Amino acid sequence: MSKVCQITGKKSVIGNNVSHSLRRTKRRFNVNLFTKKFYYVEEDCWIVLKVSAAGLRIINRIGLDAALRQAVAKGYCDWKDIRVIE
């Protein structure tokens, strides 16, 4: 899987390194991603998600089930992409 948050849809972007003499070279701004296990109470199982720091705050604020439903509705992830741990 690529470097994309499954909750917020954030992904890396391209920018420039700018030196003191204003020479520009390409660089990549990566997302602050974590591979995190969550207990999904509604399905009574553990799941593994790749979430950013902002995604973790969203899960803490509105709950895991609501965050997953919101992400699927917006197209950031699909139910088949969520890894279930037995």
Report on this structure.
This protein has 86 residues and is an alpha+beta fold. It is built from two helices and five strands, in the order ββββααβ. The strands form two sheets. The chain has a three-stranded antiparallel sheet with strand order 3-4-5. A two-stranded antiparallel sheet has the order 1-2. Strand 3 and strand 4 form a beta hairpin. The longest helix has 11 residues.
Mean pLDDT: 95
User: How many DSSP E strands?
Assistant: 5
Topology pattern, helix = H, strand = E: EEEEHHE
Return the structural class.
alpha+beta
Query: Shape from CA axes?
Result: elongated
Query: What portion of the residues fall into strands of 2 or more residues?
Result: 35-45%
Poorly predicted segments: none
Q: Roughly how many Å apart are the termini?
A: 20 Å
Computed over alpha carbons, the radius of gyration is 16 Å
The description of the largest β-sheet is: 3 strands, antiparallel
Q: How large is the count of helical segments? A: 2
Identify the quaternary structure here.
single chain
Q: Roughly what percent helix?
A: 10-25%
Strand order in the sheet with the most strands:
3-4-5
Write out key terms for the chains shown.
about 90 residues; alpha+beta; elongated; two-stranded antiparallel sheet; single chain; three-stranded antiparallel β-sheet
What's the short version?
With about 90 residues, this protein is an alpha+beta fold.
